[in-house]
Amino acid sequence: MKKGLLFFAVAALISTSVFSSGVSAKSGQPYKVDTVQTSNGQTANVYYFESERDAEIFQKKKYSTATALENEQQLSTEKNASLTGGYTYTGYHGNIQHFFKEKKVNNKTNAPVKGVKFDFAEQRSTKTSASVSADFPKIFKAQVGLEYTSTHTYTISIPVDIPAQHYGQVLTYNNTDVYKFNHVVAGGFNVYYPTESDSYDIYIVKIRN
Hints:
By secondary structure, the chain is mainly beta. 15% of the residues lie in helices and 45% in strands. Strands 1, 2, 3, 5, 7, 8 and 9 form a seven-stranded mixed sheet that branches. Mean pLDDT is 83; it is low at 1-25 and 73-83.
């Protein structure tokens, strides 16, 4: 994930305990959790925070697995452009949150704004954390049993009520399969393979003047 696109990174959801309005939540925890239905019928969680700092702490924990993988050894295009052969499949890493998209709307007025539509139309395609040679798709097929090139397209509209003096932030991501490979010269790298499963998180955060 690129720093700045989101504030985050986390493995396990923090407590969804609902605190009464006006009562401070523990650091990094939402004071309230609600749900909203998206245009495709899915249910998305809505997390409410008293401060941007608490929202950042929560997101860093929630998306940490995805961030940790991104921070692994990243091989340069120049180093790998001429490499052929020598690939070894080292195993299935698992399913993680990946291919994030984010939108944010500020409500600096003194009145709530109802039903703000967050619309997304995105395409997600197989990517690697390294440049690979032209013969790699055949190696991937032989080792994993899937076609190397996979594309997943989704459109979604998410209605969000934004209270006065708050901002609304929507993060969408794919529940992506990760396969790990190694090259005899370049070392290890990941293949991010999009699935048909997407998820959505909504953050409502108080704006501090």
